[in-house]
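$ ./design --mode recover --in tokens.txt
reading tokens...
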């Protein structure tokens, strides 16, 4: 992909073409109502507002790992954003006035397109590997890398600063 917006900078290579530093396996897929990027919510707040629940399907070999997850109200879902470009290092989001480095953005376009989502856990069927969630901001069939319980006591940061707050004001 070539830099399309003012201020964007593309890498001189595509990270997808490099040999892997790590070996990841996909443990399942997200079953999402979203099949088109233009319709897909841009973040989890928008996904929740859309009111369209989703599911996570865990592959058979990993289903025993779901044991105990029902004790948690929320989970951190890590996905592989397999349809995202990987070649921009500086981007200018549509809503932003200036371009920024990808590590200051939540954009899926990044060297390693890993999605981070905090989801509300609904019903869990360990036998079928299905976890109902409140919503999701990824396309249908997006690969799942990992699922971890969300610990409000450890994961919430009371004095965190939202860098987007100034842009929204």
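writing sequence...
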């Amino acid at each position: 992909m070539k830099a399309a917006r003012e201020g964007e900078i593309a890498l001189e290579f595509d990270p997808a073409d490099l040999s892997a530093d790590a070996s990841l396996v996909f443990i399942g897929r997200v079953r999402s109502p979203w099949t088109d990027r233009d319709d897909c919510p841009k973040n989890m707040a928008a996904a929740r507002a859309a009111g369209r629940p989703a599911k996570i399907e865990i592959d058979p070999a990993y289903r025993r790992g779901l044991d105990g997850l029902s004790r948690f109200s929320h989970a951190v879902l890590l996905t592989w954003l397999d349809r995202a470009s990987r070649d921009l290092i500086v981007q200018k989001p549509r809503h932003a006035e200036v371009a920024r480095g990808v590590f200051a953005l939540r954009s899926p376009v990044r060297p390693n397109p890993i999605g981070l989502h905090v989801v509300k856990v609904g019903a869990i069927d360990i036998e079928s590997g299905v976890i109902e969630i409140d919503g999701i901001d990824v396309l249908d069939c997006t690969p799942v890398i990992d699922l971890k319980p969300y610990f409000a006591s450890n994961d919430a940061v009371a004095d965190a600063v939202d860098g987007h707050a100034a842009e929204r004001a």
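exit 0
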